[in-house]
């Protein structure tokens, strides 16, 4: 990607949503499964088909389960195997993050994952495990040393808007050494304000809306019928609006 170019990364949980995001103008896909758990690694079939059908960048999250970012050896082996698979499939990058119990970056094991990714010329994003670190600025220096190209962060808060001042400071301290990409709670209504407050050039989000199911028969005796007959899908109009905002606010 061209340095300092405004980039919209869309996090999706299916090939169909990835294609929707692409057609709406997204520049890069973060591909996950199980978004309610914060995203886990998609199935091999989903990854293969997404790689074949997308012409924008495809980054796959490497996360064997939801929950914390402290992984045992079995989970670590799974993560290494998943990165090999993504590399052999031709993905553009992976998204990783492993921590120690004390809230510091697991430098040794993240390095192993990054070295595997680099064998396949894949880029590496450090995900929002970063926001669970005890010292964000120290963690950033470790991640820079490891060779990641970007960090996804909300500035250690629930949303990037709340963490905007921290994100601004991270971007200033990072300089040209790494990309700081805000994510969490970004909408077409607040994206321009966030860019102005932080100086960020890349934004990340799911940008979903609930759409009604096309099912005609509905069993109203089942619990939560609205959830079962409604689908959270990537919203074309939200992405188009964001892309317009991003390019309009470019100086």
Describe the structure.
The chain is α/β, with parallel strands linked by helices. Helix content is 39%, strand content 18%. The protein has 9 helices and 10 strands. It has helices spanning 15-24, 44-53, 73-89, 107-119, 136-146, 164-174, 191-198, 225-228, 236-248; strands spanning 7-12, 28-31, 57-61, 93-96, 123-126, 150-153, 179-182, 202-205, 208-212, 230-234. Strands 7-6-5-4-3-2-1-8 form an 8-stranded parallel β-sheet. A two-stranded antiparallel sheet has the order 9-10. α1 (15-24) crosses α9 and α3 packs parallel to α4. The longest helix has 17 residues, at 73-89. The chain is globular, with a radius of gyration of 18 Å.
Radius of gyration: 18 Å
**Assembly type of the shown chains?**
single chain
- Average pLDDT confidence is 94
Major beta sheet, strand line-up: 7-6-5-4-3-2-1-8
Give the overall shape: globular
Give the uncertain stretches in residue-range form. none
**Terminal Cα span:** 18 Å
Beta-strand portion reads 15-25%
Based on helices, strands and strand pairing, what is the structural class? alpha/beta
**Biggest sheet record:** 8 strands, parallel
SSE pattern: EHEHEHEHEHEHEHEEHEH
Total strand count, please?
10
Number of helices: 9
Short description:
By secondary structure, the protein is of the alpha/beta class. It has helices spanning 15-24, 44-53, 73-89, 107-119, 136-146, 164-174, 191-198, 225-228, 236-248, and strands at residues 7-12, 28-31, 57-61, 93-96, 123-126, 150-153, 179-182, 202-205, 208-212, 230-234.
């Amino acid at each position: 990607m061209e340095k300092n170019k405004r980039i919209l990364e869309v996090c999706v949980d299916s090939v169909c949503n990835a294609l929707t995001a692409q057609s709406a103008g997204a520049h890069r896909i973060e591909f996950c499964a199980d978004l309610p758990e914060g995203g886990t690694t998609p199935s091999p079939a989903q990854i293969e088909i997404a790689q074949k059908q997308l012409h924008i960048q495809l980054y796959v999250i490497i996360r064997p389960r939801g929950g914390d970012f402290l992984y045992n050896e079995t989970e670590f082996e799974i993560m290494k195997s998943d990165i090999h698979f993504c590399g052999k499939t031709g993905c553009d990058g992976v998204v990783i993050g492993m921590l120690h119990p004390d809230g510091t970056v697991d430098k040794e094991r993240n390095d192993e994952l990054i070295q595997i990714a680099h064998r396949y010329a894949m880029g590496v994003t450090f995900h929002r495990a970063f926001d669970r670190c005890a010292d964000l600025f120290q963690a950033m220096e470790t991640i820079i040393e490891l060779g990641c190209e970007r960090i996804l962060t909300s500035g250690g808060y629930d949303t990037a808007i709340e963490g905007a001042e921290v994100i601004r400071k991270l971007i200033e301290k990072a300089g040209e050494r790494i990309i700081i990409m805000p994510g969490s709670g970004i909408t077409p209504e607040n994206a321009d304000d966030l860019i102005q407050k932080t100086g960020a050039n890349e934004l990340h989000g799911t940008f979903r809306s609930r759409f009604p199911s096309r099912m005609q028969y509905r069993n109203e005796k089942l619990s939560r019928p609205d959830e079962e007959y409604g689908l959270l899908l990537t919203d074309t109009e939200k992405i188009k609006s964001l892309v317009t905002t991003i390019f309009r606010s470019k100086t």
